[in-house]
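Bug #77: duplicate submission created two jobs. Keeping one. Sequence:
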Amino acid sequence: MKINLKSIFGNKRTSPDKSSAEKVEIVHDKHVDFYYTNIINSIILYTFDATKLEEMAPILIEPLTELYEELEYAFTPVCFETVFRLGVIDSTFKNELLEFKKEVDNIPAEIWDWEFIDSHETWITIRNKAYLLLEKLGVANRTYNDDFTTIYDNEGNIIRKGKNFGK
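Kept job's structure:
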């Protein structure tokens, strides 16, 4: 008996003129506003002092952890590259943003603690660089944009639903 595996698994070309890479780009293009917001938010968080970061607990849950995690997520290559490919952020800023990420990655583990955020020279330098970077990018305010954030209460009920970026 002969089995046609292509027909069983539905292995058909849907569009001979579009590569799978182009299809992936189209999907990511739809979410460019979300990716841009992640990049800007991650930098905004680095402008905050310890008090301001602690005030973010209703949104970020554990602000010190999220400080690092937000930056990691924002710089996920496909998301990061989409923002530049579509010209949402001018490509002249790409290296400077990557350099900022590298500097954050190089913060010693022993100073990733609340007691150092406001006083350690490394944190002060990072905070100043974040301010300057946002200024260069034309971001006037230092308000964390929670448009895409869904906020829950302690019982798991939705307090505020963010934009649905999954469509």
